[in-house]
């Protein structure tokens, strides 16, 4: 059952096309990894899915899911690094989606935030300031926030960027666990090896899609062999 | 000290200045938290210079100051916000250009019309004598509006300030809130400018937020602390200005500087202790 489909989507900044004719479909429970070099249009495509930038052509459709009900983990900006906010404040802000027009957080919102904090094992950090956490802890906090925004689909833009190998491994297995529990995942990465290890669908971007399909098929393509140095990680 | 306070309250012009000042201090500290965290501090500075130019023009044309400066500064606020959001052009450089251009226009206006008289000096460096009854009403109404909007939209303001992309993705119309903050900042600057001085008003926006961030690590604590600090520094500054006959604006800024340094030291100590513990 599809929850999301993209048909012939192209995107541009001031008529400069950076994403061209992308089509794919995502089913409930899918784990799709979007790979490609820096500047190949991955983040732009994600912004299109989230409704932050309008495509110049093509269609993005959702089934049984509102565009606002996507949990998003953006590629991190510098501003956030020294921001005074407690972990609980950050996670709770993910509940604004479901809250609609209400002014204050309800008890359910706080319980949902608490639930996701516990789920990601950051209970001990709840009252800590976000800016004093390590990179890996910060990503967990942002992941908890994304989970508050959606129970169906999360979109992660280079979530392991800047993390050391141990934290990277931890975060990857956490995301895999969430996926096994039924959450659909779209992850942007320029790390092809981990992409083929975790994802069941691969979209390889270079402005236009070079490959889209099942992971098993991707492993036999020349482009995959070139990116992974010929080894197979299945 | 008590005598000084008693004496302060015995002058009606000082009572008026205190009422306007407390309101402006409160509102600017709230807006300041968002402006500083979104790296929009330069907007406050640019607006105050535009405000000075508009006052000079109003004076030259013999118009009421607020009638000219409110629309001018509000327009400038939207322009500066637009420049800051479009990161393609160098935002900070463009704002600095507008800011100094406005100041130059203001100075030229003054030079060819009235010359450097006391009125002009008051616009630049502020005077507590400038507050009229109508200013008191205007500032109180503005403050109430800002306070209500701030409380109603507090959670959304947090979300947008912390991470605008995420907030937009969850369906929050971030552009509208940014415009609202720019609008309220413009109004605050216009009202506060004549007491604090066009050259000093932006410090009222920037200092309390920066000072609170030295010590506190949660958004709510920073907001509450900024509001308390801003109002306290204002009172102490006015009392000092009265006691030593120095301009109110400069004296308030001086108190803010001392507080900032104190909080920086406390913040550093807190970090050291945190490392040891
Ligand atoms: N806000 C922007 N304005 C103009 N061009 C942009 C903007 N953001 C990204 N680009 C350009 O679009 C292209 C794709 O960028 P992006 O989607 O961020 O790639 P990726 O995430 O794959 O590294 C790049 O050439 C980049 O320079
Ligand atoms: Mg990117």
Structural commentary:
Chain A has 234 residues and is an alpha/beta fold. In chain A, 35% of the residues lie in helices and 26% in strands. Chain A has 9 helices and 9 strands. Chain A has helices at residues 42-49, 87-92, 96-99, 107-119, 135-149, 165-180, 192-198, 215-219, 222-228, and strands at residues 2-13, 16-27, 31-35, 57-62, 71-73, 153-157, 184-188, 201-206, 208-214. In chain A, strands 5-6-7-3-8-9 form a 6-stranded mixed β-sheet, sandwiched between helices. A 3-stranded antiparallel β-sheet of chain A has the order 2-1-4, with helices on one face. Chain B is mostly helical and 277 residues long. Chain B contains 13 helices and no strands. Chain B has helices spanning 2-10, 12-37, 41-61, 65-85, 91-112, 118-125, 133-152, 154-162, 164-169, 174-196, 201-215, 219-244, 248-276. The longest helix of chain B has 29 residues, at 248-276. The model of chain B has no long low-confidence stretch (mean pLDDT 87). Chain A binds chain B through residues 47, 50-52, 67-68, 70, 72, 74, 77, 79-80, 82-86, 89-90, 93-94, 96-97, 103-105, 128-132, 145, 149, and chain B through 37-39, 152, 155-156, 158-159, 162-163, 165-172, 212-213, 216-222. The complex binds adenosine-5'-diphosphate (ADP) and magnesium ion. Magnesium ion is lined by residues 42-43, 75, 157-158 of chain A.
